Structure formats: structure tokens, C-alpha cells
Amino acid sequence: MVLRTFGWSFAITALGLAFAAWQWGWEAFGVVLILSILEISLSFDNAVVNAGILKKMNAFWQKIFLTVGILIAVFGMRLVFPVVIVAISAKVGPIEAVNLAMDDPERYEALVTDAHPAIAAFGGMFLLMIFLDFIFEDRDIKWLAWLERPLAKLGKVDMLSVCVALIALLISAMTFATHAHTSTGHADKSATVLLAGVAGLVTYLIVGGLSGYFENKLEEEEEREHEEEEKAKAEGKQVSAVGLAGKAAFFLFLYLEVLDASFSFDGVIGAFAITNQIFWMALGLGIGAMYVRSLTVYLVRQGTLDDYVYLEHGAHYAIGALAVILLVTIEHEISEIITGLIGVVLIAWSFLSSVLRNRRLAAEESQEKELAAKEV
């Protein structure tokens, strides 16, 4: 099971590291390896959240997520994205931006640093909305009940998550963006942060709304098909499936890709603390992204989220922490080690809580059986 799920990741790792050593030397080998580990540690919470969405898809769309999705993740976010933000911020063409990255990596890094407030605002708002929509929803299973119960009651207020997110954006723009760091010192980035943050919020509402709509339509269609199948069985007939599942899965897939893009912001920006070479970055972060994809599928196929019910909670708390960190990094630098550790600690805590819960339930079930046996 492990080899089948992670086989491509193992193969890409071996080929990628061998190529780095052959093409650029042992220094590149070490940098690519470090970047791979960085991406995995920063994106483990991404895998848990992805698994919660991917389990709603069939095997075909899971394969699409591992093939087409990984191409988008590696080439789109880890290679093209840094070039695009440099091209936009420097007002140059994409080809010129690539030449700049290869010929003048220090200038390239400076341009990415200048674009960081906008990137952080967009990604921070998108991730913050994910966390707020999760924490304001009333759920049967609660992890930190003392916190989640009152927040679930507050969540009954319409559009509360949007209001909270906009307030957070306004505070970030007024507090951090006014003196945001740039390659030339300090500059007022308030307008840029506000625009990028609103764009992140709108993107979440559009993509999340479409995926939610088609997911609901899929559930309605599946219920209708189930009734028709039962009727057809009684009559000795068969009912052909319709293509609505494809639409629903497509928008869920689109939502996953935007989600992955938001998660990858911190990895791409953090990679510049290690190297300025975009091709080393793309290779290292791409290898890490492969493992995140494989881990997502593994969690789905093993039913881990069903067995360890607090994992999804821990991942969403990690998302909330990452959203806050991204907004704070508009002005203040925060070590990638801290960013990665927060996510790992929260998920490890939720995993341990799930294990303890399972043991407690098993002990209670055992006691009930013993009492029933004694009564007999």
C-alpha cells in the first residue's frame, strides 16, 4: 500500500536529486534535498485538509489530482508563479523575468520580496476564510469544546466569517502594510495589501461557492440515482449514470488547486531564504509537493480521517495559524522553522487527542459489554 501510493514520489525524488547533482553539483543536491524537506514540513496540514475533500471524489479524480494536479502544483506554483509575480512587480515580460532570475538572482529575489505583501495578503485571506468557515460551523465532534462551542453559536450570524476576515485585513493593512519592508527600505503598501486581500477573499468565495454548489447537486443527484437504481432493480433494468459527478468533481478539484496554491505561498517565499536559483527551488519544492499529494491519497485510502477524528480540526487550526503568520509577515520576518513547527505541533496534538479518544471509547465499550454479560 505504501509503495503503491508513494512509489512515484520515491522515483521522482531519486531522479530529481540525481539530476541536481549531475547538472549543478553537490551544492545543488543538498539545497534541493533541504527544500524538499521544507515543503513537506510546511504542507503536512495541507495534506490533511486535502484528504477531507479528496475522499469525496472517485478513483478517477484522485488520479487526476496526482497527475494533472501535480503538474499544476510543480510547474504552476513552484516555477511559473515566482516568475509571474516578478514580471508583474517589475513590469517586465515573463521571458525577461526568467532571464533576470538566471542572470541576476539577487535582483530577482529583491523583486519577489517587494511583491511579498501582496502575496501574503492574498494567501492569508484565503486561508483565514477556510479556518473561519470551519470554526464557526456547529459540528457533532468537537476537539477544543471550550472554544468551539461558543464560536459555533456565534457562527449562526450570517456572513460573520467574511466580516471577521475583512476586519483582520483592515488591521493588517493599517498596522503592518504602512511600513512594509521592500528592497529599498520601507514603503506604504496599504492599498496593495487591501486590494490583494480582497482578491483572496473573492477568490475563496467564488471557488468555494462553486465547489459547494456542485457538491450539493452531486449529493442530490446521487440520491435520485439511488432511488432510480432501486426501482430499476425491482423491474430488472439498469440506469446509466449521468455526468454531473464530473462537474462536481471538477470544481472540487479546482478548489483543491487554489487551496494548494495558498498553502504553497509560504514555501515559495521561504525558499528564497535558502537559495535564489529558481530551478533549484522548483525541483526541491516540486519533490516536496509530490509527497504532499501522495500523503493526501494515502490518508484517504487508509480512512485515517475517520479513525482519527480530530486530525481535521488540528489541520484547520494550523491553517488559521498560517493565515495569521502570513499577515504578520507583511512587515515582520518569521522563521520558516516556526511556521512549520506550529503546523506539526497542532496536528500531532490533534492526532494524540484522537488516539486517547479512541482508547477511551474502546474502554467504555468494553465496560458496557462486561456489565451486559454480568446481567445475563
TrEMBL record:
TM stretches of this protein: 30-53, 65-90, 115-136, 157-179, 191-214, 239-256, 268-292, 313-331, 337-356
Coiled-coil features, chain-numbered ranges: 210-238
InterPro entries, alphabetized: DUF475
Keyword Coiled coil: yes
The organism's place on the tree of life at top rank: Bacteria
Record's signal peptide: none
Annotated keywords: Coiled coil, Membrane, Transmembrane, Transmembrane helix
UniProt keyword Zinc-finger present: no
PANTHER family: MEMBRANE BOUND PREDICTED REDOX MODULATOR, SLL1022 PROTEIN
UniProt-listed NCBIfam families: PRK14013.1-3, PRK14013.2-5
Protein name in UniProt: DUF475 domain-containing protein
